[in-house]
Design a protein that fits this description.
6 strands; 5 helices; globular; 6-stranded parallel β-sheet
Length: about 150
């Protein structure tokens, strides 16, 4: 990131080529870093990518929205729950204090979003704007406030 961008309080944002590329960035970010915060339900894939196994502390943040079956998500996360390098925080990025969950983080991997194109218009529009636009804005603002200069999105 350039000095001018840093002076403006901007963060470096890697716009990755899908979840696999984004999660590979967690591993790269872990080199020389201590804590990666993964927002969204993709923390299981982060573990599969070897991030937690490589000694990078991973903090997963998920709102457990009703789009996916909660017991299924919890089942997928049970393997990670036994790993001391992983911590799960249940929080809604639209309303919760994001800064508090970023303490000690070096990088944020932002995978949180409300999926599904069909439901994104009409009555569901507000839900999608909240999860996909507002939550992203709040994550980026929190990164600036807490001094995290790398966000993988």
């Amino acid at each position: 990131m350039g000095e001018a961008a840093a002076a403006e309080g901007l963060v470096e944002v890697d716009a990755g080529g899908g979840d696999a590329a984004q999660l590979a960035s967690v591993g790269r970010a872990g080199e020389g870093h201590g804590v990666s915060v993964v927002v969204g339900a993709k923390t299981l894939e982060a573990a599969r990518a070897g991030v937690v196994a490589e000694g990078v502390e991973v903090v997963g943040i998920d709102a457990f929205t009703d789009f996916y079956d909660r017991p299924a998500k919890e089942h997928n996360l049970r393997v990670l729950a036994t790993n001391p390098a992983f911590r799960l925080i249940e929080a809604d990025l639209r309303t919760d204090d994001v800064d508090a969950h970023l303490e000690g983080a070096d990088v944020i991997v932002h995978l949180a979003a409300q999926p599904g194109v069909r439901d994104s218009w009409g009555r569901g529009f507000e839900v999608y704007v909240g999860h996909n636009v507002l939550a992203t804005q709040r994550v980026l603002d929190a990164a600036v406030r807490t001094g995290i200069d790398r966000v993988v999105y």
